[in-house]
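User: Predict the structure for this protein chain, please.
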Amino acid sequence: MPAFAANLTMMFNEWAFLDRFDAAAEAGFSAVEYLFPYEVTPEAIAERLARNNLQQALFNLPPGDWGAGERGIAALPGRFDELKANVERALDYVAATGVKRLHLMAGIADPHDQDASSSYRRSVAYTAGRLGEKGIDLLLEPINGRNMPGYFLNDFGIAERLIAECGLPNLKLQFDIYHRQIIHGDVAMALRRLLPITGHIQIASVPSRNEPDGEELNYPYLFSQIDGLGYDGFIGCEYIPRGRTLDGLGWFAPFARS
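Assistant: Here is the predicted structure, written as structure tokens:
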């Protein structure tokens, strides 16, 4: 049976951030994820995880200046020293939360620019190596250009080739089904082919990015496919509730922790 992680950046926004851990656990989730933890202390997050018997499924490394429009710095020339400092900052939260996988955002850059491509490869190799020393997987997530115009890593094929070329055992794909459907489609066949290099899966309806209970994708079928393929990781619920979070959890009821 699939195991789901509530995305606390998008879900349970009726509560303050730390209280979302409590709300997710009360709703039956056994794990959580979110974009960034860095506005609260590692100790505060660790306490909420322990209090609620929750696992930390995933979070992102620091993305640069998010408020100014940056969406990662890995592909940005001249930012390597900052990236290295960001890795160390993230490791403080790794130690506190016990998380086993982190996502590295590439940034807004032209994928055909050689300087950006070189910067990205260097950043990926360094970050994967440093996280590997701690037993942590590094994830790369292709993101569609509709939600994030100009994002460097906007193609699953590019991510697949880079993972193969690097040959690092802890470098894996973050397979967001929402982004896959918008960029390429062919979700079920892609899951079958790419699952061996996949470290995390995320879901949302397409095109609205709401609960996974309608629109273009047949999620009950996809869940059965994921289960049948032997995936034993978490599925992150990175969707925007249509209304109150709890009102939209009917799809989740069969999977909730009792």
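Helices lie at 17-26, 42-51, 80-97, 114-132, 156-166, 177-183, 187-194, 219-228.
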